[in-house]
Amino acid sequence: MSFPITKCNKITEGLLTLSATILLLIALIPLIMVGRYAHPWADDYSYCAYTNTTWQNSHSIGVVLEAAFQKVKETYNTWQGTFASAFLMCLCPVIWGEEMYALTPVIMLSSIVIPHFFLLYVVLVKGLRVRKLQWWYISCVFAFWLLQTIHSPVNALYWYNGSVHYTFMHGVMLVTIALICLLFCVKEWRAKLLITVLAAIASVICSGSNYSTALLGILCLLGMVVVFQWYQKQWNYWVLFPLLSYGIGFYVNITAPGNWMRQEHFKGQGILESVWSSFEISIEFIGEWFDWQSCIILLLILPVVRNMTERITIEREYHFPMPGVVNVLSFGSLACMFTPLFYAMGGAGVDRQTNIAKMWFQLLVLGNFIYWIGWVRRKFRSFNVNYISYHTGYFVVVALLLFCHFYLCEDVLTDYTSYAAYVSLKTGEAKNFYEEYMERVSLLESDKEVIELQPYTIRPYLLYFEDITTDKYDWKNSALASRYGKKSVYLIE
After folding, report:
1. Residues 6+ apart with CB under 8 A from 92
2. Which of 165, 183, 331, 417 is deepest in the core (most CB within 10 A)?
3. Pairing state of beta strands 488-491 and 450-453?
4. Above pLDDT 90, what percent of the chain?
5. CA atoms of 157 and 159, how far apart (whole Å)
6. Residue 227's CB: how many other CB atoms inside 10 A?
7. Where are the domains of the chain?
8. On the CB side of 426, how many CA atoms lie within 13 Å of its CA?
9. Residue 60 and residue 62: Cα distance in Å, rounded?
C-alpha cells in the first residue's frame, strides 16, 4: 500500500545526483567564461568615484573603506537610504583594475547558488531530516533551473552595480531566512550564539538593501517566528536579536532624507492602489513564468520528492496541513515584492528587480510542489497502484514534455542562459565587444580632455546593457568622464 509514484532506491538517487551535479557544473562554465568580457557601466563609475581615486592614491584598504562610508553618507542624505547596497556599490571590482571586473559574474553566480543550497539544506536536512543525497539532487536541479531561466542575465550577473543591489542582496535575504530557521533547529547554546550573531549581521545587511528585498525579508522573518513559536510551544529568545537588528536597519533605510529627495523625480501610487497593482502584476508574471521548463523541472525532481515525503509523512508523521493556505501566503509574498515599486515609482520596476521576483517565484514553486506532494502522500497513503503502469506513464509524460519543449518550440535553446553564453563565446561576439570597449579605454586614458566615442557595433545579449548618449551632460556621460578625469565624453551620432 503506497502512493502511486515510483520509490527511488539509493543507487538511483546516487546516479541522479551525480548527473545533476555534472549538469550544473557544465552550465556554470560558459557563464563564468563569458564574464571575462564584461565591463563596468553607468552607476559602477558614479558609486566608485571616491573609492577608485582613494585606491589609486593610497593603495590602502582601510582608506578605501573609509571613502566607501563617506559615499554611503552622501547618498543616504541625497538619494536613497539603502545603506548596505550603497556600501557594496562603492567596492566595484573595477577600482582594483579593469581585469578584476570579471569577478562580477563569479560573485553573483555564487550569491544565487550558495544561498539556495544553504536554505534548502536547513529546511530539508536540518528541519525535515531528509537524506543529504536527496537535498543535493534537488538543489542542483533547482539551481540549474534558476540560472538557465534568468529574466535579464546582464542585470543579474554581468553588471555589478545593478546585480549587487538586487541579485546579491536577494542571496543575503535567503541566508538570513536560513539562519533564523537554523536557530530553531539547534539546541546547544554555543551554536545558538554563533548563529544569532551571524543572523544579526545578515539582518543588518538585508535591511539596508533594495526595498523589495528588505520588505520581503522582514515579513518572512516575522511570519517564521510566529509559526515556529506556535509549533514548538515555547519562546525562543535568541531570535529577538536578529529581529531587532533587522527592524532598526529597516527603519534607518526607509527614513533616509535622500528617499524624499529622490521621490520628487517619480510619481507613485497610493497604498491600496499599490497593493492591488502588485496582485495584478503577480498574476501576469505567474502566467509568463510557469512554462514548459517549469513542468519539466518539477517532473525531474518528482521521484526524489516522492521518496523524500514518504519518509517525512511516515517516520516523522508530518501531515503537511492546509496546503491551500500555503499557496495563498506564497502568492502574497510574491506580490509584496512589487508593492514598494508601485508605491514609489508607479510601476513594476526594472529588469534587475524582476530577476529576484522570478527567483523568489521559482523557490515558491519548488516549496509548494514539495508541500502538495507531501499532502497527497499523506492523504492517499492507502491508495494502491500498478508500478509498471506508473513507470510507463511517468516516462511517457516526461518524453512528451521534452518533445514539446525542444521540437515544437522555435529557437528554444536560446532561452537557456548557458547556451547563449556558449554561442557568444563560440562566435567571438563577446571577445569583439570587449575589444571595442578596450579601444574606448585607450582613448579615455589619453591626454585629450574631450573624448568622442563610436557606438558599439556589437551588442551581446548577455553583456550589453545600455550605452552613453550624444548628450555630454547626460549623467552616464558625466560619470564616465569623471572616472577618467575628462572634461566631457559623448557618443558620436
Report:
1. 40, 44, 47, 48, 51, 101, 160, 161
2. 165
3. parallel
4. 54
5. 6
6. 12
7. 1-34+265-426, 428-491
8. 7
9. 5
pLDDT band at 2 (very low <50, low <70, confident <90, very high): very low
DSSP tag of 42: T
What's the sign of the alpha-carbon dihedral 183, 185, 189, 195? negative
Is the separation of the CB atoms in 482 and 49 below 8 Å? yes
Beta bridge partners of 453: 491
C-alpha cell at 235: 519562546
Q: What is the pLDDT of residues 427-478, one digit of tens each?
A: 999 999 999 999 999 999 888 999 899 999 999 999 998 888 998 888 888 8
Amino acid identity, residue 35?
G
Dihedral angle computed from the Cα positions of residues 93, 95, 47 and 478, in that order, rounded to the nearest 10 degrees:
-120
Q: At what angle do helices 292-315 and 132-148 cross, to 10 degrees?
A: 160
- Asked whether the CA dihedral 123, 142, 195, 73 is positive or negative, the reply is negative
Ranges of H-type helices in 153-210: 153, 160-163, 169-183, 189-207
> Other C-beta atoms within 10 Å of 407: how many?
9
* Cα 259–chain centre separation: 24
- pLDDT (mean) for 312-334: 85
pTM: 0.91
**What cell was used for 177?**
531566512
- What is the helix, strand, coil percentage profile of the chain, to 5? 75, 0, 25
Note the pLDDT tens digit of each residue in 198-242: 999 999 999 999 999 999 999 999 988 888 777 766 677 888 899
Give pLDDT, residue 415: 75
